[in-house]
Structures are given as structure tokens and as C-alpha cells.
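Lecture 7, part 2: worked example. A protein chain together with nicotinamide-adenine-dinucleotide.
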Amino acid sequence: MAGRVKDKVVIVTGGASNPGLGYTSAQMLAREGAKVVVTDIDKAGAEACADSIRNAGGEAIAVQQDVVDERDWLTLVDATIETYGQLDVLVNNAGIAILKPFMELDIDDFNRQISVSLTSVFLGCQAAVRQMRQQGGGGSIVNVSSVAALVGMSRCGAYAAAKGGVRAMSRSVAMDGAPDNIRCNTIFPGVIWTNMQASAVGNDGIESRIPASRVPLARAGQPEDIGATVVFLASDEANYVTGAEFTIDAGMTAH
Ligand SMILES: NC(=O)c1ccc[n+]([C@@H]2O[C@H](COP(=O)([O-])OP(=O)(O)OC[C@H]3O[C@@H](n4cnc5c(N)ncnc54)[C@H](O)[C@@H]3O)[C@@H](O)[C@H]2O)c1
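Predicted complex, written out as C-alpha cells:
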């Protein structure tokens, strides 16, 4: 067990899906010594993630949580403090992708997308900052946005609105958190092979998403490609990093 985030207490939301960014980030954080609170609306999946961490010799608990429910956030922070005594890092990763041509999105689609992928991050940042301020010593918040926040993408009208909101809000959280040494940074994944991506590509297959004309490295990323930056931002190696944006997309948005 290496120690880049040794003894840091980390909440990772949306940790049930395997392959998924939350699942793998949770495993990588635990391998680097973190105590991980894995949450998801899928209780069995969150427990499977925490089990896998414990089976590998790490420390983790699972908590069922609907990220749009403010009370669930309060319960989650309470459970974290009760078990591990502090909260050092929050990874706001849970999300959904309602992908439809713009004119086929209805208001329920839009509201649901904003709620699960943006309001959740608002609630999470508030819950984390409140706890981190109370305990003192600072903390780190990592918000997972998307390249859809950076460039125009078809069928992403609602999804991009939510992820663009995450981008803008994160910088503001970074400003308001700075006096308490609470850092907040954003990750923008490109095409990463997860259950969400598998349902997004459907029968077209992943090759349809990664031609070199669109993704210069011409391959899908693996969840570890995102987890590596999550670990960095959670660690003290990123002590001087806040309000920053990490595009991890094989060059997709560079051209
Ligand atoms: N995979 C990609 O290519 C990609 C690209 C850009 C951004 N992202 C973002 O990365 C994050 C993780 O994506 P992923 O690909 O691992 O997705 P995924 O669908 O594989 O996993 C998402 C997890 O979030 C959970 N979740 C959904 N709604 C929830 C709710 N209301 N409360 C609690 N948990 C909930 C799901 O149960 C699931 O376990 C998402 O925010 C996604 O938008 C992914």
C-alpha cells in the first residue's frame, strides 16, 4: 500500500458502477492509503466497491446516497465523521447522461439532468465545505465535469448545461474555499470506457467515438486515466492547485 493520500478520509460519489470512474478512483485512492467512503444510489454496487477495497487490504465503507437529496448528504457526512472522524476530500463523480437531440429533450429530461449532475454538486460542495471549515486544516474537492462543457457536442444539450454549470461553480467554490485552504478543482474526461459510455455508444460501438479526426490518440481512455488525476488532486502534491481544470481527453478538445 503506497501512501500518497495516506490516512486522508475521502468520499467518492457514484462508486458502484464497474467499469466506472468512481469505482476505479475509489480503488486507486485506497491503494494510496486513503480511507474511502463509497456512495451510490445503488447500495449493492457501493458495497461491492467497498468490499473490493477491503479485500485488497484497504479501508472503506459503503453508504447508500441519492446525490440530489440534501438529507442524504447530511447523513453521509455524519456517517463519515462517525466512522473515520474527519473529511479531507470529496470527489463529486456520480452522474447520469440524458443524451437526445436538442429538440427531443423535454423539461423533465432537462430538470432531471440538472438535478443529478449539477444540483448534486452544489449540495456536495456545501456539505463538504461546512465540515472542512468546522474541523479546520483545509480539504480538497474534485468535481467531475465533461468535455461536453468545453465544446459543442450533439445530443448533449441538457448534459452540457449541467456540466458547464459544474465548471463555473467549481471556480467559485475555489474562491470561497481558499481562505480556509479548501481547494476545488475540476476534471473534464473525454471518451472513457465505463458503463455510461457503453450505453452512450450503444450498438455503434466505441470505434465510432474515437476516430483520430475526433480523438487524436484514437483510443478510449480507461477509468485509471481519470483516477490518476483524482489521486493527485486529493493528495498534498496538489497543495498549490485550486480553481484549476484538467482536461483528460486524448487531445479531443485541443483541435
Ligand atoms: N465515461 C465517460 O466517458 C465520461 C466522460 C465525461 C464525463 N463523465 C462523467 O464522469 C462521471 C462518472 O461517469 P461514469 O462514466 O463512471 O458513469 P457510470 O454510469 O458508469 O457511473 C455513474 C454512477 O453514478 C451513480 N448515480 C447515478 N445517479 C445517482 C444518484 N442520483 N445518486 C447517487 N448515485 C448516482 C450510478 O448508479 C453509477 O454507479 C459522471 O459524472 C459522468 O458524467 C464520464
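The longest strand covers residues 182-189. The chain has one domain: 9-248. Keep this in mind for problem set question 3.
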